[in-house]
Amino acid sequence: MSQAFKFGFEDDNIEVDDVPEDEASKDADQSMLEDTPGSGLLPTLHELDDILVALPSNIQYNTIQLDHPDHGTVTLPRRELFDIRAQIMAEDTTLDELKAGISADDIKPNIYEGGFKTWECSIDLANYLLSCAPEVSEFPSNACTVIELGAGTAIPTLILFQSLLRSTPPSDPPRRTVVLADYNPSVLHLATIPNLFLTYAMAAKLIPPTSADLDITSALISSFKQGLAERNIDIRVISGSWGAPLASLIIPARSAPEGLPFRNTLILASETIYSPASTLAFAACLMETMRGCEEEGGKARALVAAKMVYFGVGGGIDEFLSVLKEKGGKGKSAWEMEGMGCGVGRCILEVTPGAGC
């Protein structure tokens, strides 16, 4: 039976791994090594309107500060974890995934995959997008698709979304699609989409760039939807297991006559390779998604942020690169930070399909 486990992080909102390999980490729950994340949850496409209608009347948020080399500090809003927990407890839910989400456990394999918290490597990826990647400057003017696998609080996607919201909408904007996929539907409903909503409100100067709260009204929801329409932004929200069925929902052009702009596709992921099981499932889903883009005449690349090694549970960069090669992909380092003191090194890999993929 799967049991919950913790990585040994310190902060409730941003999970920073500075735990050395010791006996405690070696004794981390080994049952997870036989688990494929989300193996029992059928991928499902969720209607954005349904999620927006179900938003609470008030959302409390804090902010994340990122440094831009040219434009100074960039602020992103993020729903407070305690606010998510308060909503879950108020609704008196019986869902196991929600019970796990408000427990002390970071992850409970196949039930709750940690999406309510912001993980350290997602901050790395957001910083990289902000300072190094061309997508931030190109996103507002090009037809493209951004996909975040294991989205959770979606901090990397928020960087791109914010840059798009702050640009002046052209008279005939190209179609931009944002696909947010997470194992747990509750994470998408309670964290991912609220964070997109908060980012819109902050970009529109409806809330201050400091910790505060936002009253959710029907007029504000209508304004959000109008803002998306004016910029020709399509938001797709998908829950469920990594694998071919999930990839087929991400790349639905065979069954959708209008298709999606897969000519330029960027796939984002953070902390998705923390165990051999998660590495195998994620790599398979990633390559299936990339192949789907190419079959539709597009081109895809991925940025995968992770720790060099996840002590005690077997995942890490080397394991991922090995599995990736077997699946027909290739990866190279785009950014690295060596471990300092008792901390663990971190890396961002650029992943592309291999020749003949």
How would you describe this protein?
The protein is α/β, with parallel strands linked by helices. It is 34% helix and 23% strand. The protein contains 12 helices and 13 strands. The strands form 3 sheets. Strands 2-9-7-6-10-11-13-12 form an 8-stranded mixed beta sheet, with helices on both faces. It has a 3-stranded antiparallel beta sheet with strand order 4-3-8. Strand 3 and strand 4 (72-79) form a beta hairpin. Helix 10 packs across helix 11. The longest helix is centred in the last third of the chain and has 20 residues, at 276-295. Residues 1-12 and 16-38 have low confidence and may be disordered.
- Structural class of the secondary structure composition? alpha/beta
Strand order of the largest sheet: 2-9-7-6-10-11-13-12
The topology string of helices and strands comes to EHEHEEHHEHHEHEHEHEHEHEHEE
For the report, how would you describe the main beta sheet? 8 strands, mixed
Give unreliable regions as ranges.
1-12, 16-38
What gross morphology would you assign? globular
Tally of separate helices: 12
Strand content range: 15-25%
What is the end-to-end distance?
Answer: 36 Å
Rg estimate, integer Å: 19 Å
The helix content, as a percent range, equals: 25-40%
Secondary structure: number of strands: 13
Overall average pLDDT: 82
Topology (elements, then pairings):
Layout: E1 14-15, H1 23-26, E2 44-46, H2 48-53, E3 58-68, E4 72-79, H3 81-90, H4 96-101, E5 118-119, H5 120-131, H6 135-138, E6 144-149, H7 155-165, E7 176-182, H8 185-203, E8 212-215, H9 218-230, E9 233-239, H10 244-250, E10 264-270, H11 276-295, E11 299-307, H12 317-326, E12 329-337, E13 346-353
Parallel strand pairs: 1-5, 6-7, 6-10, 7-9, 10-11
Antiparallel strand pairs: 2-9, 3-4, 3-8, 11-13, 12-13
